[in-house]
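ARCHIVE RECORD
Type: protein–small molecule complex
Small molecule: zinc ion
Source of inputs: curated submission
Record status: active
Notes field left blank by submitter.
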Amino acid sequence: MNMFRGLREVLRPKDTEPFRETPHADPRWLDLADGKYKCACCGLDAREFLSLSYIAPAPFPHDNDQIDLAPLANDIFDTVDGDILTDDFCRVDTHHFVRTVIVFPLDGVEGCMMIGVWVSLETEDFARYHATMDRGQQSQLDLMFGWLANPVGEYDRPVAVLLHPQDSFQRPWLQIAHEEHPLAIAQIDGLTFDQMMNFIQAHGHSFTN
Ligand SMILES: [Zn+2]
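STRUCTURE (tokenized, with ligand):
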């Protein structure tokens, strides 16, 4: 996998090379790259979960099975009164949410973990974001302040975030607003192997080795 390009070189320097200090990397990353972590419940390889997502913001009060079967196109959003969930927008009572991505580098190895999370925005910011969605040039929008609407690992709400709108219909990416928050530190230093596994296990998967 591209995600692990260079990982073997970091962890296992060639025998012919003279010994030298290499950046410390948890050897379990190599086991992960070798496919040694399989979920005890679903059997999937842990590498599959380096990209996770939530179907809906946690406050959306409906059956997740129904949501999964019937994702709605974004252009339905304005035609429905009341609670609604589409690919990128959600309304629950007077609260508005958008779908975003939070990215964490991995500590000591190449690659990253991405989690699709929903963010609650102020009504005015939501309106600006929603109105400009179809132009594909949203990086021109100002940064928006919001709140995570899903847990990330052990960190449940409220977590303040800055939303960076993107061009070319890419979902906005998130920066944790408080720089001393553990998630903000992880966004800079990278997730340790244990933090990454905790994030995956918080999504209901289970690894014994
Ligand atoms: Zn599983």
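CURATOR ANNOTATION: The CA atoms of residues 10 and 22 lie 7 Å apart.
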